[in-house]
């Protein structure tokens, strides 16, 4: 069974995107599609980016654990809100902290907003940052408009059937690229 890390990118008070991370953890676990771990950036106490992990003289245990987890998982789902057309500094901080860990790692992007477009403006800038460091960003996206109406705080969707159908397409694409990477490395 593949291992998938789910990055909950927001550290904002009252954040709504974390409910989508919880949803994916429940979805993948209940359908027995993958082992999951949520990497909640709100739980980490990373300093503002000064240098890549491999060049930091005394990295924190949290930094080392994050790098180990990203290295060991088969794929990543990033759940990020859109803030003023971009993604949060907490996510940029983590992307820049690591480097080799992202190389050819299959990554799926779920975007979230309170508005009607589901964070669609953030996708291009996030894809570009990940492509620049060699990540394998899958083509399927999972935008969530009006997140506070679509999910409750425990990650339960208001229209489970519709959201599960959309998630099925998204997750299957990530699983395809995980398998394709494994086949290519044999």
UniProtKB/TrEMBL annotation:
<dbReference type="InterPro" id="IPR029039">
    <property type="entry name" value="Flavoprotein-like_sf"/>
</dbReference>
<dbReference type="GO" id="GO:0016491">
    <property type="term" value="F:oxidoreductase activity"/>
</dbReference>
<keyword id="KW-0560">Oxidoreductase</keyword>
<dbReference type="Pfam" id="PF03358">
    <property type="entry name" value="FMN_red"/>
</dbReference>
<dbReference type="InterPro" id="IPR005025">
    <property type="entry name" value="FMN_Rdtase-like_dom"/>
</dbReference>
<feature type="domain" description="NADPH-dependent FMN reductase-like">
    <location>
        <begin position="2"/>
        <end position="145"/>
    </location>
</feature>
<protein>
    <submittedName>
        <fullName>NADPH-dependent FMN reductase</fullName>
        <ecNumber>1.-.-.-</ecNumber>
    </submittedName>
</protein>
<dbReference type="InterPro" id="IPR050712">
    <property type="entry name" value="NAD(P)H-dep_reductase"/>
</dbReference>
